[in-house]
Design goal:
By secondary structure, this protein is of the alpha+beta class. The protein is built from eight helices and 14 strands.
């Protein structure tokens, strides 16, 4: 590990709003901002505000209470722990994944799953947190592209239909910021990424901004449960180191577990899980519905 890793001040954990009705689903609204718009852009990319009670608004009334899935979707997993829970969840999320996308189809799916709730013409970019035009997808430095949160080189599954196109770990990200992350493992520390303040990187790891630390952790752990060596794909497993290269591992597990606790699932993440379930893959990320299962397995 890089011994020059920067130690930064401890961050304040996100505060959960209390007294919220279970069926009420809320999401943060991007803060209004004036941005310099490149000539070829149809809409500016505006920064979004950090999580706060005054920046929340309801999603539509069709959103679901995830506890309703315990008696149906998760019924075979309830009451289990450790390897038995992991195996049960693997069977559930693999057998119910009846929708599988091509890599080209991921573009349009992300425009739906990650739509800015305050502007239906935009998507929210994972690492920068900015709201960008759906039409600004591509390969230019100011565009957004398809970020594999579980880096596709970790297991060498490329963009094949399966782990390479699984929406539960694919997110829109600014091309330049995505390049800064590359295929690095996740850990604390480093130098702040200029295009995405709050994100840090060094030679062998990447630290996402506080508001999506838990999102990243739960996406990684979903992949570890979903892909266990079957379907012709590698057995993906997190470990507690960085520099995993092309091995089907990614780290650091101890840090990912901390991030999952620090940043519990919010309304945007829950809504995204529901859209993938309802419209695309028809399976769920169990760690969004039951974040306590992270510690039950690892």
């Amino acid at each position: 590990m890089d011994t020059t890793r920067v130690t930064r001040r401890a961050r304040t954990a996100l505060a959960l709003a209390t007294g919220t009705v279970l069926t009420a689903v809320v999401v943060q609204i991007p803060a209004s901002a004036t941005a310099t718009v490149p000539a070829h852009r149809t809409a500016a990319a505006a920064p979004i505000a950090p999580h706060s009670s005054h920046s929340l608004r309801a999603f539509d009334a069709t959103s679901h209470d995830v506890t309703s899935y315990d008696d149906t979707y998760y019924k075979d997993a309830l009451g289990k722990t450790g390897p038995a829970l992991k195996e049960s969840l693997h069977r559930i999320i693999s057998t119910t994944q009846t929708g599988k996308l091509t890599y080209d189809a991921v573009w349009d799916a992300l425009k739906d799953t990650d739509q800015d709730p305050a502007n239906s013409a935009n998507v929210i970019l994972l690492y920068s947190g900015r709201s960008a035009s759906k039409n600004a997808n591509g390969g230019g430095p100011d565009d957004w592209n398809r970020e594999h949160v579980w880096a596709k080189s970790h297991g060498d599954f490329c963009t094949d239909t399966g782990p390479g196109t699984d929406l539960h770990h694919l997110r829109p990200a600014n091309v330049s910021v995505n390049s800064a992350r590359g295929d690095k493992d996740f850990d604390k520390g480093g130098t702040e990424v200029p295009e995405a303040p709050g994100n840090f990187t060094d030679d062998d790891s990447f630290e996402p901004r506080d508001a999506v630390k838990g999102d990243v952790a739960r996406m990684i752990l979903y992949m570890a449960v979903r892909y266990d060596g079957g379907d012709g794909f590698p057995d993906l497993e997190p470990n507690d180191k960085v520099g995993n290269g092309t091995e089907p591992h990614i780290g650091k597990l101890s840090v990912l577990k901390q991030w999952s606790k620090q940043d519990p699932p919010d309304a945007f993440e829950k809504h995204r899980n529901q859209v993938i379930f309802d419209k695309y893959q028809h399976n769920r990320n169990p760690f969004i519905d039951h974040p306590e299962w992270v510690d039950e397995i690892w």
